[in-house]
Amino acid sequence: MNEPHMLPPRRRDRLYTAITLTLGRLLLPAAFLRHPGRARELACAWALRLRFPAEDLTGLSPGTLTALTAARTEAFWRDHQLIGVTSGHRDAATQLRLFFSEVRRSGSPESARTWVLPPSESGHVHGIALDVRPVEGARWLERHGNRHHLYRIYANEWWHFEYQPHTHSALPRLPHPGAISETPASPLRQPG
Q1: Within a 10 A sphere around the Cβ of 181, how many other Cβ atoms?
Q2: Considering the entire predicted model, what is its pTM?
Q3: Does 110 share its domain with 155?
Q4: C-alpha–C-alpha distance, residues 133 and 131, integer Å
């Protein structure tokens, strides 16, 4: 039998999802003993921490963290989907390094803005942006995230979602991150 890392990616993801969901069920009694009113949330968080051990949720705004926790818990228990975070909050220096790296790679600040924004414009710096995985989790969030005020913002980034608490329906998707400077300012699009 093949080791999990030797399986094709989609099969491997399905296997990891099944294992993580099983862990969540097994952890539920311990979570209930710890906090009966939040047992499902805790068991989900513990199982996802085992599945995505490098995930770092520090620095997210309190509203973003609450929305993400609620969305992940709902996806996990209701629809058996995992939502992992590959990148959340970034300090301004990290965002600036990413931006300059993309400028070097793409050749200009304008073309870099297709994928990375400077720190003053990035939702990551403000703790309201999330880059998520796997694709199935992002699809779930795209379909159901509005209940938690989490919206996919850019057409070219299936993984990027932002917490917009004053929005109650899907926002028109921008073609890419740099397009925000090409459109009139909207109070719903401003980070922070």
Answers
A1: 12
A2: 0.87
A3: yes
A4: 7
Classify 153 as helix, strand or coil. Answer: coil
**Residue 189, pLDDT score:** 40
43: amino acid identity, one letter: A
Same domain, 47 and 81: no
Is there a contact between 176 and 114 (Cβ–Cβ < 8 Å)? yes
SS3 of the chain: helix, strand, coil, percent, to 5: 55, 10, 35
Alpha carbon distance 148, 68 (integer Å): 7
Residue 9 has what pLDDT?
72
What is the phi/psi pair of residue 165, to 5°?
-70, -20
Average pLDDT for consecutive 10-residue bins of the chain (192 residues)?
61 92 98 97 98 97 98 98 97 97 95 94 97 95 96 95 87 84 42 34
Instruction: Please provide residue 34's backbone torsions phi and psi, each rounded to the nearest 5 degrees.
Output: -75, -45
Domain that residue 162 falls in: 54-192
